[in-house]
Amino acid sequence: MSWWYAVNNEKLGPVDQAALLALYREQKIAAGTLVWTKGMADWQTFGSVEALQAQLADVPEAEIVAQPAPIMTGEPARRVAPQESSSKKVLLYVFLVCVLVLVVAYAFMTGIIPANPLAGSTQSAAPSPAPTAQKAPANSVAWKNPSTKIQADIDRAWVFKDESDATNAEYSFVDKEDTVSLFIRSEPTEGRTLEKFIQEFKDNVTKDNSAVKFKDGGKTMAMPQGMPSGSRAWQVQAVVDNGTKGKSEADINLLQTGKLFWVVVSLRTNSANAEKKVMLDILRLRVIKTLK
Q: Domain range for residue 230?
């Protein structure tokens, strides 16, 4: 089975499964690295692919072969080191211990060390230093989701725009060549289930936007690691007619996190190359992780 993986927005591969697992064990890729193989509907993180995790779990720990103790026969060998050297070492250790005892005794007598170091102490433990903010990679910029205040590192090639109103959050990311884009919109659940929201979304698209054609019936998707308990996701693929600009392939994700629904739409024009598509998949995954 051949695998592709993405490092620094660059699509690498193909490599066989054994080589991919070796890259992970050698820490050249991580659990958050995006991977893909034939049969997968979309790129997924290494840590979320059950087949890869099962392979890692099946690999036994390296066996440590204990060396048997040598069997001693015949007369024991005579010591080469003279007894005088060992005696000098013992005397040196005794001397150092005596010096240490004298220093501690002097410290108690002069008050440098109090007789009861816990008595009368009003000083609290020094606070831990404030955590240092991690810097984004050189080709990335730190972006903070205005709604959740959660930060993600995104490629500098993206142009971000906030079109939120008083009720709903609405954001867009477009690359500078306008070949790939990501659109995000939130909506309160108001007691609705994800299934109800999915049906409403399908009805609205079919009724109000004939430019969007669904390619399949959609399916439930696994949420990225670290999302809140109870979070759910659904994905459908579509084709969007952009008029004179031609058609775009779209991945539409509907997610439920807490009391909000999120609509996440990834668009790829026909002129988008493989590198741009990987860059879009990485952005989508990182942005979804901020929707908590």
A: 141-288
User: Is omega for the bond preceding 14 within 30 degrees of 0, making it cis?
Assistant: yes
In a domain, 130, yes or no: no
> In the chain, how many domains are there?
2
pLDDT digits (tens, 9 = 90+) for 181-240: 999 999 999 999 999 999 999 888 888 667 888 998 899 988 877 788 888 999 999 998
CATH number, domain of 235, equals 3.40.1000.10
Asked if residue 185 and residue 282 are part of one domain, the reply reads yes
* Helix ranges, the chain (H): 17-25, 50-58, 83-110, 194-208, 274-288
3-state secondary structure of 47: helix
Residue 170, strand partner residues:
185
The DSSP secondary structure of 97-110, one letter per residue, reads HHHHHHHHHHHHHH
pTM: 0.56
Residues 6+ apart with CB under 8 A from 56: 21, 24
Predicted local distance difference test score (pLDDT) of residue 114: 54
Q: Which of 92-101, 114-123, 217-226, 280-289 has the highest mean pLDDT?
A: 280-289
Q: Do 23 and 151 fall within a single domain?
A: no
From the list 189, 204, 191, the residue with the least C-alpha distance to 252 is: 204
Amino acid at 43: W
